[in-house]
Structures are given as C-alpha cells and as structure tokens.
Amino acid sequence: MRDLFKIGVSRAALKYGLAIAMTCAAWTIDLLLQNSFNEISSGLFIVAAMISAWYGGLSSALVSVALTIGINIAFFNHPHLSLAVGLHGPERLIVFSLASLLVSALTARMRASSRSLIELNHDLEERVQARTAALEESNRQLEAFCYTLAHDLRAPLRSIQGFSQLLVAEHGNDLDPGGRDFAQRIGNSAERMGRLILDLLAYTDLSRANLKLQRVSLERVVQRVLQKFGSEIATRQAEVSVDPAFPDVRGNSAWVERALSNMLDNALKFGQPDRDLRIAIRAEIRNRFVRIRVDDNGIGFDPKRHPYIFDVFVRLPVVEDQSGTGIGLAMVKKSVEKMGGQVGVESEPGIGSRFWFELPVVEGGD
Hints:
Elements (H helix, E strand, L loop, with lengths): L1 H31 L10 H14 L1 H17 L10 H4 L1 H82 L5 H32 L5 E3 L1 H11 L1 H7 L2 E4 L6 E3 L1 H17 L8 E9 L2 E8 L31 H11 L3 E7 L3 E9 L6
Parallel strand pairs: 2-4
Antiparallel strand pairs: 1-3, 4-5, 5-7, 6-7
C-alpha cells in the first residue's frame, strides 16, 4: 500500500508540475516578446493548457488555467505583466478562461481516445497472434490426421480391389453375369476411391506449398504435354493445332504443365461422338499477362455452371464418363492463383469449350 501511495504521489507531482512549468514558460515568453509586439495573444497560455491536458489530463489543464487566472488577477493593475486584463477589462479574462476550458476538455478527450485506440490495437494484435497460433496448431493436427486417415484407408481399399479382381479371375465362371458385374464395380469403386484420396492429399499439399517463381518456357511445356498425350491424341484421332511460338511466363514449370495437361485431358475426354475432335492450344498477351487457351469442339456445358466449375468435387456434367474425382480443375485454379494468375472458362452445350489460365509475362531479360 505504501508503494502504491508513493507511486500515486509521484504521478500527481509530475502531472501538476508539468502544468505549472508550462504556464510559467508561457508567461515568460509573453514577457520577453512584449518588446516586439504591443499585445501578446492569450494563445500562449491556451497552448500551455493544451499541453498540460495532453500529457497530464484534464485536472492538469485546470491547474494551468487556474494559475493563469491567478497571475492575471494578481497583476491586474500591471497589464505589461499579464494578459493586459487591466486595459481590456475582465471580459478578456472570462473569454480566455472559457476558451481554455473548452480546448483543454477536447484535448483531454482526444488523448483518452488515442490511448484507448492504442490499447485496443495492442489487445487486438495479441488476440490475432493467439488465434493465428491456435489455427496453425489446428492445421498441423488436421494435416497429421488427413495423412494418417489416407494411409489407413488406402490399405483396405487395395485389399477390396485385389480381392474383387481375384473373385472375377478365379471364380468368375461360378458367377452369373450380374455377379461378375457387381464384382467389377466393387473393384472400380475401390480404385476410384484410392485416386480420390491421392488427389485430396495433392490438393492439400498444393494449398500449403511455398514456391519461388521463375521464368518458364511455354514452348517447352506445350511440347512435353503433347508428348505425354501423344498416344491418346492418336487414339481419338484428334486434330490438335498449336501456335508457332509462345512467350515465356513467370511461374513454376511443373504447375504450368499440370494445368495445361488437365485442360487438354478434358478436351480429349469430352469430345462429341458424332464429329471429329478439333483442339487448339493458343496464347495471347493481355495487359502484361499471357492467356493460355485450350479450345475444343466437344460437348460443352451450360454457362450457368461457369462460376463454380473450378470448385472442389465439381465434375464436368458428362453421363458417359464419371471417372474423374472432381479435383483436377480445382487444383488448376489453386496452382495458377498461387503463381499470381487466374483461370476461366467459356462454353456452350453442343458447341465446345474454351478453358484458359493467365500468368504474368516475362519481358526481355527479366
């Protein structure tokens, strides 16, 4: 208690000592400048009250105003030693007092608001740091859970797929056509579930990945993608046209290749069965970005699906082929956005689709 009392007395002494010091300083300046000016504005004493209010609060400002009034009353008959109240009448002192009290109150309130804002920002920063730490810990736990779950799920899925294949291979003759079909469906479903788990893990890794962007040759990426899909292009007898030259972009070579591969795979997969499949891979510069397009004359889809076709678990609306996991286009969007670009699609049912993504162009020696 004694220590707290000493601290309180010390703070009061500093607060009121500041008010006395500022008032005396204003009075001294007033006296010194009288040789240069006929009248010194009461602004000096108002500033003293404002400084006292800012650092010491309203009570400190009141001490400053009271001391100023006392000085002027004491030297009422000596105008050259005060605010010249003796020349202008008591009205000057009343106006000064009211103005000083108003300004001091406003200053003290501004200071209190400033302190409250600083404390609020500090408290908010601490809360953000605490919640960020909690979120990071939650993400680590979720990541560990996902990997454990994926590992534990893939083992029984492989068993289901393997036993279904053995059932068909070794006991297929004992099953009727319906039984063999059921066994085959079990194996296919297990295989698709395994692919879905792997794609989910890949999407999670992509969301957490940090990479250094670098110069990427689109020409080399396009060549690798065409080589990868060479046999499928030949099987589908697709006509694929490619621009003669592609500009370089800033990104990650593997991610750019994956994005282009996914779009070309969709173009090959969803062609019209009653007409020759034509695909075009184009690139155009648009405001310091390169837009890479994959155009096809396939089945297309409803434009109403455009806004969410790149969401997770959204598949292209195709009846014949449901082998996709619905994560491919979501991974394209995530990877392109992490490289500083964006994706989009234009499509019409029965006419075809145009999938595209944009990446920053690399100019000159960048």
